[in-house]
């Protein structure tokens, strides 16, 4: 009996779910197909598919709705499963995780109490994102509960290059909460960069950072500009810090992993060494 057959079905589903949840950006379908081969049981794969929702919403998966891109997020989920909301175009849709398709598109009603704030932030974000994230997809959600406005901004940009064995994704989430009368807003943000390089190896980078700040919200336009300014500064500082960190690692950490010179403290001329070996072989044959 093989080791796989000795594992219970529940454990096999758990392992398969972990594999799917750990899929690098842009490689969801490939991982699901590989897991299907490993399980060799579509009923177990169906059970493991319960993690599709968590994976897609955590990754801010992009999907086209009537020709326009939007994001799959927990904030946009209408049923905790397959029905989602596109706040930019005010439409709901059913999402197919394996086909990455939106169907059954319908018009939805906006939360009128939050709309002026939501629209102001969405508009203020555009110039910043167009400049620094040319392929970005953004979803800005708004709601009012107990005289408190909550605006949630989800930003995603990615570049997938499987022909050269690498994929990468940037995403950030910003939650802005303030009284309906305005005043000061608490802004909390989480930024994340994930890269997978897999040519002759398997290397992943996953970096996260959380920030928070209090910004003034006296009017929709002023509040939106203040929020976007904080987002821009936070994301710029974070990306510069990542660059500085890897420059430092290249000059220190990576060099410490090996000797700069062999124990003789002289460089080896590999071409000359190869020539010596060929000459030695010829002399031995003669």
Summarize this entry quickly.
The protein is an alpha+beta fold and 286 residues long. 41% of the residues lie in helices and 33% in strands.
In terms of topology, how is this protein built?
Blueprint: H1 3-6, H2 9-21, H3 28-39, H4 42-48, H5 52-58, E1 61-65, E2 68-72, E3 83-86, E4 91-96, E5 101-107, H6 112-132, E6 137-145, E7 148-161, E8 166-179, E9 183-197, E10 203-217, H7 220-251, H8 253-256, H9 270-285
What does this structure look like?
The chain is an alpha+beta fold and 286 residues long. It is built from nine helices and ten strands. The protein has a five-stranded antiparallel sheet with strand order 6-7-8-9-10. A three-stranded antiparallel sheet has the order 3-4-5, with no helix packed on it. β9 and β10 form a beta hairpin. The longest helix has 32 residues, at 220-251.
Give structural attributes:
about 290 residues; alpha+beta
Strand order of the largest sheet: 6-7-8-9-10
Number of helices: 9
Oligomer: single chain
Overall spatial form: globular
Residues in helices, as a percent range: 40-55%
